Amino acid sequence: MASSVSPLAPAAFPDMPPIDGVRIATAAAGIRYPGRTDVLLALFDPGTAVAGVFTRSKCPSAAVDWCRDRIKRGAAGALVVNSGNANAFTGKSGRAATKLTAELGAKAAGCRLDEVFLASTGVIGEPLDASKFATVMDRLAATATSGGWHDAARAIMTTDTFPKGAAAMVRLGTSAVTICGIAKGAGMIAPDMGTMLSFVFTDAPIAPALLRSLLAEGVADTFNAVTIDGDTSTSDTLLAFATGTAAKRGVARIARASDPRLPAFRKGFVAVLANLAEQVARDGEGARKLVEILVEGAKSKQSARRIALSIANSPLVKTAIAGEDANWGRVVMAVGKAGEPADRDRLSIWFNGIRVAHKGARDPGYDEAAVSAAMKKPEITLKVGLGLGKGRDRVLTCDLTKEYVAINGDYRS
Amino acid sequence: MASSVSPLAPAAFPDMPPIDGVRIATAAAGIRYPGRTDVLLALFDPGTAVAGVFTRSKCPSAAVDWCRDRIKRGAAGALVVNSGNANAFTGKSGRAATKLTAELGAKAAGCRLDEVFLASTGVIGEPLDASKFATVMDRLAATATSGGWHDAARAIMTTDTFPKGAAAMVRLGTSAVTICGIAKGAGMIAPDMGTMLSFVFTDAPIAPALLRSLLAEGVADTFNAVTIDGDTSTSDTLLAFATGTAAKRGVARIARASDPRLPAFRKGFVAVLANLAEQVARDGEGARKLVEILVEGAKSKQSARRIALSIANSPLVKTAIAGEDANWGRVVMAVGKAGEPADRDRLSIWFNGIRVAHKGARDPGYDEAAVSAAMKKPEITLKVGLGLGKGRDRVLTCDLTKEYVAINGDYRS
User: Fold this and answer.
1) Are residues B325 and A411, on separate chains, in Cβ contact within 8 Å?
2) Which H or E element spans position B390?
3) Does residue A316 belong to the interface with chain B, where contact is any CB pair within 8 Å?
4) How far, in Å, CA of A229 to CA of A405, rounded?
5) What is the rounded average pLDDT for all residues in chain B?
6) Which of A94, A146, B71, B284 could disulfide-link A62, Cβ–Cβ 3.0 to 4.6 Å?
7) Is residue B235 within 8 Å of residue B86, measured between CB atoms?
8) What is the spatial distance between Cα B394 and Cα B295, in angstroms, rounded to a whole number?
């Protein structure tokens, strides 16, 4: 298990204001480790809209199945999240566990069963004993209060080395709304499998359909543009809840895509997603470098994304960055294997602003000392210019260190 | 650089008979390191047929471009291979270097320029000084003799920890033909990039078109079914040369796909490719386990291949195997992310013959002690049953150890 906080962690957990209409409580239910906070309950005021995006894995967890079947109604009363057990690959018992958990959540919230949303993270293949939630649910419901984001972010951690939160205030006309989000990162401890979970909350009065499209649009360049090791989880879940309580303060409902206030809200919403996604990359297992991959001059944005992911998931590129080596030969390799249009003889590559390769060969002005100094920084921007078109994209990742192998392979030795 | 021989290496280099019509010599031309054998010259008798398959990288090396432009003629007079420099991403100077090398080779062999085939492996992006070949070419041509496979296999090594060779004798009617092959594996030393190179030789009198189809067919389930780290090289090259000299011993020419002797020849030919490909997996950087991934019950062979590659390239599966952990939760993850048809509730998983998961949940008879013992073996077979159809496939890989990260990331520290 990771013992120290990632050197790439933010200096402090951010100040996050409470959101009217959201009450939160956490507890230790002994899901996997005794005495460790492992359950998060969020209760929502009536009228709360919800939207969600989930893993594309063909083998999703039982909680993902549960949410996917209910997300289209767009109404939320409660959210129950546990760490310590992913309730994935658990067959019928997994489905029974989601039902029992949701029943407990519905009773606590006084809402319909299909207004309860669930997420689980932790070991795969172990039955989840949902009766453990029964022992804590009444107290959770009784003690739930506004705020408490730091505790909430802590409760969903597995091998994360720091809790992840982000907030934004957005002025809508004469009033303002708040957006708060928490996330957990891609961490694994044997025989556990971490999963990416994120929950975003706002008091903005926004129609479920609009929330849905904001989320689908916002996730593409934030969470879906982060990769630690290319291993997609069975449980990835991002849920957005909008209580609408800002309406009480005079914020008119946002019901149409043409609403002139929507761009400002979108900007704040996406900023929170982007901030959380970057924190996930900063807490990649064993990470010592935050790596931003920029691809420009591709045939299309989609093509740029595929090339950026090919670079970001290349073990050879990631180990080179861990070794503080501007090994652009490996970048060429990763561009070449992506299967997307690329012309070797137009390719240029930069590390932290220093051009190391130009038009298919080493840059004539290559300065080893300057490049070496640039590679020592904790944040590396690797830019590739393809020189073919106007497609560009950006992906965040981290380096591949011996600590990654130790975290994921050492537990049996 | 890897200092000790892989624990997965064969006990000894195989006995490999000479092939009539092929003469070989090696030399130290000082391409990168002084005093290290780094050039291989093979000279072929007139009438030698050649076929080749090359990297699918969009950024191929200059040598790959050279060969691809000339392979369709199907006639070979010489092969020149160097280690120490990949002549990749070298622009115009790289093209000039291939031309000069081929001119030297054509002069040495007394053949046409477009009957000379080239391969280079080593650092990317450094200009290759082909004039160094001039200093050794005459002596190479003068000393080239039949046999010498061990020296040839050594001359093309980079971070390989052992030379790789394989041979087969195939009876064709009343006489026999010989097939000999050498290969180099996937090894990298900073700032070098290893590449997969393999050369197969036979005295069988076989038409170029048939050799071509045998090669294309044979590579699919051998070299193309091996992955060390999912990083496709710029320089992967597999060339097959058939001198046809067995005709002098009465072996009639194989000119038609319906020739009744072809299945026997194919079997021997593919066995040599499979043997070499397995040796490449056994010499993966930092490898301590040879891992065979079997996928059964898929919708198609292609679907089974994609799922097998998703498992074989998963850093989480590979580190788990390094940790001797039968972590089938990570296998489920890798099946799920492959994007191919899969039904969680029909999935079964075996490690070295022990079923650990069945129909979407942990196997009821799961025995931790038995599984732990099985995982300690140096060779691991990981079988996945999808229960959907009749598609099956097999991929070879190795585990992911701290040594892999050290080999590819430590050189700057």
Assistant:
1) yes
2) none
3) yes
4) 11
5) 89
6) A94
7) yes
8) 6
B316, B372, B409 member nearest A320 (Cβ) = B409
Q: What average pLDDT does the segment B90-116 reach?
A: 95
Residue pLDDT, tens place only, B1-48: 445 888 889 999 999 999 999 999 999 999 998 888 999 999 999 999
Pairing label, strands B116-123, B78-85: parallel
pLDDT for B193 equals: 41
Residues of A in contact with B313 (CB under 8 A): 230
Q: Does B315 touch chain A (CB under 8 A)?
A: yes
A272 touches B: beta carbon within 8 Å: no
Residue A317: the pLDDT is 93
Number of C-beta neighbours around residue A244 at 10 A: 25
- Say yes or no: B93 contacts chain A, CB-CB below 8 A: yes
pLDDT above 50 (res A217): yes
Tokens 């992006």: give the residue: B125
Measured CA to CA in angstroms, residue A112 lies from A22, A99, A116, B393 at distances of: 17, 12, 7, 47
Q: Are B57 and A315 within 8 A, CB to CB?
A: no
pLDDT bucket at B130, cuts 50 / 70 / 90: very high
pLDDT at A194 over 50: no
Q: Give the residue on A whose Cα is nearest the Cα of B311.
A: A231
Q: Which of residues 182-241 of B touch A (CB under 8 A)?
A: 188, 190-191, 193, 229-234
Q: Measured on CA atoms in the order A376, A378, A384, A389, is the torsion positive or negative?
A: negative
Where residue A411 falls among pLDDT bands split at 50, 70, 90? low
Q: Which residues partner with B181 through β-bridges?
A: B166, B200
Strand partners, A354: A351
Sequence-ordered strand ranges (E) for B289-413: 290-298, 348-351, 354-358, 361-362, 379-385, 391-398
For B:24-53, CB contacts with A below 8 A are none
The pLDDT assigned to B235 comes to: 75
pLDDT at A2: 44
Q: State the pLDDT at residue B195.
A: 58
What number is the ipTM of this complex?
0.83
Least confident of A376-385, B197-206, B228-237, B368-377: B228-237
Q: Which run of H or E residues covers position A292?
A: strand A290-298
Instruction: List all residues of chain A from 157 to 186 with a beta carbon under 8 Å from chain B.
Output: none
**3-state per-residue secondary structure call for A364-406:** CCCCHHHHHHHHCCCEEEEEEECCCCCEEEEEEEECCCHHHHH
What Cα–Cα distance (Å) separates residue B186 from each residue in B240, B279, B287?
A: 20, 10, 11
Residue A123 bridge partners (DSSP): A85, A192
Task: Cite the active site residues of A.
Answer: 195
> Does A14 have pLDDT greater than 80?
yes
The verdict on A96 touching B (C-beta cutoff 8 Å) is no
- Which H or E element spans position A175? strand A175-184
Cis peptide upstream of residue B191 (ω within 30 degrees of 0): yes
Task: Flag whether residue A62 sits within 8 Å of chain B, measured between CB atoms.
Answer: no
- A336–B58 CB contact, under 8 Å: yes
Chain B residues in contact with A405 (beta carbon < 8 A)? 319, 322, 400-402, 404-405
Distance between CA A299 and CA A302 in Å, rounded? 8
CA–CA dist A291, A268 (Å, integer): 24
Instruction: Sort out which chain B residues have CB atoms less than 8 A from A60's CB and list them.
Output: 336, 344
Tell me if B336 and A411 make a contact (CB, 8 A cut-off). no
pLDDT tens digits, B351-402: 999 999 998 888 999 998 999 999 999 999 999 999 999 999 999 999 999 9
Whose tokens are 């194919």? That residue is B266
Does the structure show a pLDDT above 50 at B189?
no
pLDDT digits (tens, 9 = 90+) for B274-295: 998 888 888 888 889 999 999 9
